[in-house]
Design a protein that fits this description.
Layout (H helix, E strand, L loop, with lengths): L1 E3 L11 H11 L7 H18 L4 H10 L2 E2 L4 E2 L17 E6 L2 E7 L8
Antiparallel strand pairs: 1-4, 2-3, 4-5
InterPro entries: Peripla_BP_I
Protein name: Leucine-binding protein domain-containing protein
Length: 115
């Protein structure tokens, strides 16, 4: 078992629609980190729509101020500007590696929850 901050877009119910749309548009499964990159761009766009042309400092301040829910996890920062993942959505993913192939097992925050 290995843990990572990267979800398997096709295996995670929260990101399955992203994987389907990606395959429909590009003809292939999303690359590792693709859904996280999508969330990062959307998070920046979210901040930019709020600050307009006020510059980098205003964007940083805005992104630190307001939590944002992406499709992979909630993005929030503490008062010191460090990433702060809420306990119910830590954004870690477990994989089992067999014969050199990694297969998604679960979101770490889903382990131990009743089925």
């Amino acid at each position: 078992m290995v843990g990572t901050a990267c979800t398997d877009a096709a295996a995670d119910p929260r990101t399955e629609a992203f994987a389907v749309a990606h395959r429909a548009r590009y003809g292939t499964a999303p690359a590792p980190w693709a859904v996280e990159a999508y969330d990062a761009v959307r998070f920046a766009a979210y901040g930019l729509t709020s600050v307009g042309a006020d510059g980098r400092a205003a964007l940083r301040s805005e992104l630190l101020r307001r939590p944002w829910q992406g499709i992979t996890r909630k993005v929030a920062f503490n008062a010191g500007g460090q990433f702060f993942g809420p306990a119910e959505d830590i954004g870690a993913f477990l994989y089992r590696v067999t014969d050199g192939k990694a297969r998604s097992v679960a979101r770490a925050d889903d382990i131990g929850k009743a089925a």
